[in-house]
Design a protein that fits this description.
The protein has strands spanning about 20, 25-30, 45-50, 60-65. By secondary structure, the chain is mainly beta. The chain has one domain (about 10-65). A two-stranded antiparallel ribbon has the order 1-2. A two-stranded antiparallel ribbon has the order 3-4. It starts with 17 loop residues before the first strand and ends with a strand. Keywords: Oxidoreductase. InterPro entries: Acyl-CoA_dehydrogenase, Acyl-CoA_DH_CS, Acyl-CoA_Oxase/DH_mid-dom, Acyl-CoA_Oxase/DH_mid-dom_sf, AcylCoA_DH/oxidase_NM_dom_sf. This is Medium-chain specific acyl-CoA dehydrogenase, mitochondrial. One of its GO terms (biological process) is fatty acid beta-oxidation using acyl-CoA dehydrogenase.
């Protein structure tokens, strides 16, 4: 589970990683640190924020990410 970020630590409300949707694809932009098992697992859940949420209480989404992708 990739939550921890530089400067935010494990404070999820301070997370700055964002996601955008374009042409049917999702792009995640940000940095995660101290993710246990990140090198060992082929996939992980990544927390990312919608940069322009309609409802701030629903700004975050967990994405199933292929760990081999940059």
């Amino acid at each position: 589970l990739a939550l921890t970020e530089p400067g935010a630590g494990s404070d999820n409300n301070s997370a700055t990683t964002t996601y955008t949707r374009k042409n049917g694809k999702v792009y995640i932009n940000g940095q995660k640190t101290f993710i246990t098992g990140a090198k060992e697992y082929p996939y992980m859940l990544v927390l990312a924020r919608d940069p322009q949420p309609k409802d701030p209480k629903k700004a975050f989404t967990l994405w199933w990410v292929d760990s081999s992708k940059p």
